[in-house]
Known about the structure:
about 220 residues
Amino acid sequence: xxxxxxxxxxxxxxxxxxxxxxxxxxxxxxxxxxxxxxxxxxxxxxxxxxxxxxxxxxxxxxxxxxxxxxxxxxxxxxxxxxxxxxxxxxxxxxxxxxxxxxxxxxxxxxxxxxxxxxxxxxxxxxxxxxxxxxxxxxxxxxxxxxxxxxxxxxxxxxxxxxxxxxxxxxxxxxxxxxxxxxxxxxxxxxxxxxxxxxxxxxxxxxxxxxxxxxx
Length: 215
């Protein structure tokens, strides 16, 4: 299945559901922050692969594996303690979390893990991996990437930002992370990252022009 087909298979049901929903989609904001990899950040050997498939609440994305295990890459970990944040999101928190990443960089890659992150091997990374957007850089250069994961109550959500370039091209390239919580996986409650119509169009355009980097 092509990248465009994969995007359409996820975008079409979402667009259809949104067309039936009335009013503005609702969500509880958990956290938003500036994210980047610094020159002095930790180093891991090998990095998670970009498989072009964004994770959703159905769990449709499989762990992409690790590429270039002999190459050193820098990364930064952001630890969100949902135990303390659940009070902030109140009754909205049902374990359904959406992560948006607004970044133009094709040299950084964001992924989510549950409670811990150990990059010493593909097996340890896969054991706590929750999901990722499958690619790098905003859709069509304007619409943030987003993906969905399920995070149980009283857990830590670890967001790991990798530099995907062995030469350090992703260092100090900033992006904005937004984490939102939902009561359930009802499409009618999905947030609108800007305009969903633009987002859907960007998904199609991004697949059509093949701008995303693989690997």
